[in-house]
């Protein structure tokens, strides 16, 4: 069943009102995306909607959102909820709009441009929309139709300075508003870049963040990508990551989620060059009535490539988590080495996780495996710690943090690793494993 015409008309009106103000280079792309959105709407049908089987998009689709405007902010408030370091290039976007006053402009060979500019060179904008196929996804089409601002990051060939680019997308929490962050990262041959994407903010008022990131990993290049979501229970967040990897390229992803009413991360990595690899790891913590959906897909196109997919979840209260997606090994992708795993620690009898890892293998010379687990801690583990003089609550907290630490410890940026360790430790619920 389609959404009410009232909701769709609201998006039509907003699109018409902003079209004249958006950069000219993106007008054709945005118009085509809006035509697609008009045709397919939101993914709310109960049948024939496998990608959204375990997540109900109706609460998001039923609200008349208006595009968020910028209101006065204090950068110190943002630094309290998002990682920030003086050695990084920190770029701030408020309600989807770039804030030059609060952003760093450190000297670097990496070219960083703003999508809102009409003066962008053709080569900078040519890849926008090149990976994101929105033909069957209304949220992705909507982001593309309304995109008006966001960073275009171009890493030149041989750039290996180790600089960290910290993108902060701050949601001010204005009632019934939506923002559309957009990110494009392109890397030249034999280069390395570290990028952090932060989605933070929100308030007690209902808001929606709809984001798309496109990443091109060049030949012999490495992209270390970190994605953090820390919003409020009144925030809905639907994010897309689309990645293409060239020959000998490496894409390392670390995703951390610990705050959202309904959250979904749709990550698709296409390994299109030989001897390329990706390592995708994530940690999600849900509490109360929160809902988190990770839909992760890897497409092995060429031979002699590797992929690792490892996600962990901690669920408390009446929350729900979803882990789904596939690893596809095409016929030409011989000598593929791939493993897929999802592990969940359930702290409440009312929490629920739906885990559905899948492998589709069309090559005959591969090494692939997948698996999923969900449960509580066994009594022997707790007894071992209690026998060392640790009280029950402290032992429970250490066990939970140890479970999360396996992912946090893989973060290679020391300042970010410390931030995540403190952030997750402080957010863990009081819990006592009792048997």
Give the key terms:
435 residues, alpha/beta, 9 helices, 38% strand, globular
Could you describe the 3D structure shown?
The protein is of the alpha/beta class. It is built from nine helices and 21 strands. Strands 1, 4, 5, 7, 8, 10, 12, 14, 16, 18 and 20 form an eleven-stranded mixed sheet that branches. The longest helix is centred in the C-terminal third of the chain and has 17 residues, at 392-408. The radius of gyration is 21 Å and the shape is globular. The termini are far apart. The model has no long low-confidence stretch (mean pLDDT 90).
Taking all residues together, what is the mean pLDDT?
90
Q: Number of domains in the coordinates?
A: 2
Number of helical segments with 4 or more residues? 9
Number of strands: 21
Structural class label:
alpha/beta
Helix content: 10-25%
Helix-strand topology string: HHHEHEEEHHEEEEEEEEEEEEEEEEEHHH
Fraction in beta strands: 35-45%
Q: What Rg is obtained from the alpha carbons, in whole angstroms?
A: 21 Å
This entry's quaternary arrangement is: single chain
The low-confidence parts are: none
Distance between the termini: 47 Å
Q: What is the general shape?
A: globular
> How many strands, what sense, and barrel or not for the largest sheet?
11 strands, mixed
